[in-house]
Amino acid sequence: MVDINLLKKLRKETGVSIADCRKALEETGGKYDKALAWLKKQGLEKAAEKKDRETAQGLVESYIHLNGKVGSLAVILCETDFVARTEDFKHLAHEIAMQVAAMNPKDVDTLLKQEYIRDSSLTINDLVKQQIAKLGENITVKEIKRFEI
After folding, report:
1. Tens-of-pLDDT digits for all 149 residues of the chain?
2. What is the pTM (predicted TM-score) of this model?
3. What are the extents of the domains in the chain?
4. Are 63 and 145 spatial neighbours (Cβ–Cβ below 8 Å)?
């Protein structure tokens, strides 16, 4: 039997389905930290399975820094318009546009290798893969541009 409080906590922290959270806790003997690691591993495997799927929908996200002197655009693609309209996808696009404004990567490959500004234990590539696992679709960063006065 899985501890319902741990199940709720894992679901809230990861956003992964309740069924996957339950399976993670069952597979790891109810150990929360191990369940997190298990879900991360499963998410990376799911992301790898989806990497060749076509991404033709998505968003162009903009970010203007508070001083108005730095801004960025990011083109983030997914497989369907349905996913492009979700709050999770919109949040990912915003975080990537903000990363571009803050860190000024020279290209998409450089961006994907950068540490995420909100969590240095993740790269932007890790952040994208987490959302692939959560949303169930391939996601790609197609293009970025940073502007500065």
Report:
1. 788 888 888 888 777 778 888 888 888 888 888 888 887 777 666 666 667 778 899 999 999 998 899 999 999 999 999 999 999 999 999 999 999 999 999 999 999 999 999 999 999 999 999 898 888 889 999 999 999 99
2. 0.73
3. 4-50, 57-148
4. no
Question: C-alpha angle with apex 12: 7 to 132, nearest 5 degrees?
Answer: 105
Amino acid at 63: Y
| CA-wise closest residue to 24 among 133, 115, 131 | 133
Beta strand residue intervals within the chain, DSSP E: 57-64, 70-78, 115-116, 119-123, 139-148
Domain 57-148: assigned CATH number: 3.30.479.20
Q: Are the C-beta atoms of 75 and 60 separated by less than 8 Å? A: yes
Phi-psi domain of 136 (left: phi exceeds 0; alpha: psi -120 through 50; beta: other): left
Least Cα distance to 41 among 115, 126, 121, 118 occurs for 126
